[in-house]
Amino acid sequence: MAGPAIRAVELARALAQEHTVTLAAPNEPDAELGVPAVCCHGRELVGLAAEHEAIVVGGLTLALVPELASLRKPLVVDIYDPFTLENLQLFARQPQAARIEDSEGLLNALLFMLRHGDFFLCASDKQRDFWLGMLHAVGRLNPYTYDDDPAMQRLIAVVPFGIPAERPQMTARGLRGRFPGIAEGDFVVLWGGGLYDWFDPLTAIRAVAIAARSVPEIRLFFMGTKHPNPAVHEMSMVARARGLARELGLEGKHVFFHDWVPYQERANYLLDADVGLSLHQHHIETAFSFRTRVLDYIWAGLPIVTTVGDSLSELISREQLGLAVPPGDAEAVAQALVSLRGPEVRAEIREKAAAVAQALSWGRCAAPLVHFCREPRLASDRAAGYAFAPPADWAPQRLSTAKGLVAKSWASLQRGGLRQLIRDALSYWRWCRGR
Fold first, then answer.
1. Are 83 and 219 in the same domain?
2. Residues 222, 185: contact at Cβ < 8 Å?
3. Helix, strand, coil % (nearest 5) of the chain?
4. Are 215 and 254 in contact (CB under 8 A)?
5. Are 271 and 350 within one domain?
6. Which of 239, 292, 339, 424 is the right S-S partner for 3, CB 3.0 to 4.6 Å?
7. Weakest mean pLDDT among 55-69, 166-180, 193-207, 387-401
């Protein structure tokens, strides 16, 4: 499973502690997920959702099956993944017409979801500020939702990606002795997620080339080069990373590529590594991202090297769980990796990571969603039948209508009586003369 599927499963498990949950997916599950799971599409999904008291959707589900919005069922929309920003980077090498088409299509889908959700989930406080701006732009911060909750906590809440409550257990060797070229005494650096185009594995490979001069036993292992969803095409970054590793003479010696590690087996790989690595480029996606596989490093107690710029890099620096480095700086990455080699350093970080992992357990992270589902409800504006729809011919001059002036005059009288009305009228007159 990739991040969105992992999140769906774990949130379903958290909800199942006190609610009856059905997990719907477009494919038949091939493993025990801990909650009832069904495979359904399109109209089947609408029929299934109609039998439940609340609906939780993620990704593009609501845009692909818009009938879900017409069921008048409380609708939770998970927007932890700002995919419109990801795709700006993903399509950066495509013809401009294709980029515009993709950007507009995804934005329209996102706007539809923002207009029709009753409760929204995001991954960080920084993301919440971003999404509040988007919700405001589509009219969801309005008198109805403000009267319901001026802080908008009943409209959008932070539900981060979480960490399993149970500690990871190794059931078999994941790396050492299993992959030719990775031996017991090697210093293993693990890249725990996919090689997406918004990441920076190229700097990681260059850093290993530098570090290998003083630490010849360094090994970099990429855990996921082939996405488990066959509908997701291979990112161009995979070929670029393999090409660079070959060019530098590192592939199969210091750098190793693997297709994908099943979710249930990831602990074997994490616990067989020495350092977790996650690097990204400097662009807008980074600012609002939430690098989910970094949480696996925390779960396993691995020292972490990551790029500055996102909320998790701030957590790593604050809690002293590793080192955050400038984007694209291979020398800094190499120095950071080498500095985390010592067993004493790793033991100290492992202890700190255990405390952070408890605070980020799925049960704690999912609390706002669990609370909402105790008494699921339509958002106050949706319950009242209100939807913001600006007229196509709207212009700023429309603010200066007689109706608007009457409203402003009445507000001045209420605020300070006739004297306040005269002051405001004079101020307005001077402003009109100066236009």
1. no
2. no
3. 50, 15, 40
4. no
5. yes
6. 292
7. 387-401
Q: Say if residue 201 is in the same domain as residue 342.
A: yes
Residues 6+ apart with CB under 8 A from 269: 174, 175, 190, 192, 221, 223, 261
What would the pLDDT profile of 350-380 be if each residue is shown by its tens digit?
Answer: 999 998 998 899 999 999 999 999 999 999 9
* pLDDT value at 407 more than 70: no
* CA distances (Å), origin 220, targets 175, 196, 413: 11, 17, 71
| Structural domains of the chain, count | 3
**Helix intervals (H) in 117-212:** 125-137, 143-148, 201-211
Q: Which residue has the tokens 């299934």?
A: 48
Q: What CATH number is attached to the domain comprising 36? A: 3.40.50
| Strand 55-58, strand 75-78: pairing | parallel
- Any bridge partners for residue 343, and if so which? none
CATH of the domain at 263: 3.40.50.2000
pTM assigned to the model:
0.80
In this predicted structure, what is the pLDDT of residue 403? Answer: 55
- Are both 69 and 216 inside the same structural domain? no
